[in-house]
Amino acid sequence: MDKLADIATKLWWGGDPDEKNPTSGMSRRDVYNVKKSWTKINANAQGNGFLMFSRLFEADPESKTFFSYLSDTNIEQMARSFTFQAHIVFIMASLNSAVENLPQPEIVVPLMTKLGRAHHRQNIRRKHFRVFEEVLMNILKNDLRLSEEVVDSWTLFVAFMYKHMFTAITE
C-alpha cells in the first residue's frame, strides 16, 4: 500500500513534492504553499503592501529616505499619496509575477535581476532588503497567521528572489 500511496502522491504533485528545484531551491510543496498563501495576501494587495512599507519605515527609518516625496509625511499622508500607492502597486505586481511564475523559476530569475538593478540605481543595499525580509516574515507569522511550514516556504522564496536581486545590486 505504501508504494501505491507513493505513486498517488507523485501523480498528484507531478513528481516528488519535496524534491528541490535546482534553480529556486524550492520544492513543489514550497511553491504550492507560497502560491496558496499569496492568494490571501494579494486579495488585499494595496493594504498588505502598505502594511509592509509602513512597518519597514518603522523598523528602518533610513529606508523612507529613498522616497523623497515621503520625507515630511506621516502615515496618514503616506496613505493618501498617489505616487506611493503606485509604488506599492508596482511592487505587489512584481511579487505577483514572481509567485505566478514559480513553477518555472527560470522566468523569475530575470524578473528579480531587473528589480535588483532598479533598486541598485536608487542606492538601495542588501541591508535594506534584510530589514524588509524581517518585516515581511513578521507580518506573515503574526498578522496573517500563516503556519510555520508556509513561512518556511516563504523564507526559501525570499532567498531565491534575493539571490538574483543581490547579484544585480553588486554588479
From TrEMBL:
Keyword Transport: yes
Residue ranges crossing the lipid bilayer per the database entry: none
PANTHER family according to UniProt: GLOBIN-LIKE PROTEIN (PTHR47217:SF1)
Identification of the protein by name: Globin domain-containing protein
SUPFAM superfamilies in alphabetical order: Globin-like
GO MF annotations in UniProt: heme binding; metal ion binding; oxygen binding; oxygen carrier activity
Keywords attached to this entry: Heme, Iron, Metal-binding, Oxygen transport, Transport
Annotated Globin domain residues: 25-170
UniProt key word Ion transport: no
PROSITE patterns: GLOBIN (PS01033)
Recorded family membership: Belongs to the globin family.
